[in-house]
Amino acid sequence: MRLFFALELPGNLALKIADWRQRQLPVLGRPVPPANFHITLAFLGEMREPQLEQLCAQTDELLERRTFTSAEIHLDQVGYWPRPGIYWLGPQRWPETLDELAGALSTRGNAVGARRKRGDFRPHLTLFRGCEEAPPAPTAGCSFGLPYRGFSLMESRNGRQGVSYNSIARWNFSSLNGC
Question: What SUPFAM superfamilies does the record point to (predicted)?
Answer without folding.
Answer: LigT-like
